[in-house]
Amino acid sequence: MNTLKNKIIISTRPLSKNDIVKQYLSEKGAVVLDFPMIEIYPSVISDKISNTLQNINSFQWIVFTSKNGVDCFFKLLKSLNISAEKYSSIKIAVIGKKTSDEVLKNNSKPFLISSGNTSEDLFVELFGKVKIYEKVLLVLGELADDILEKGLCEIVDITRINVYNTILPKTISKDIIEIIKSDRYNIIIFTSPSGFINFKATMNKNEIFSDFRVASIGKTTEKELLKNNCKPLFVSSKSDGKNFAKELENFFINTKI
Question: Domain containing 201 — which CATH number?
Answer without folding.
Answer: 3.40.50.10090
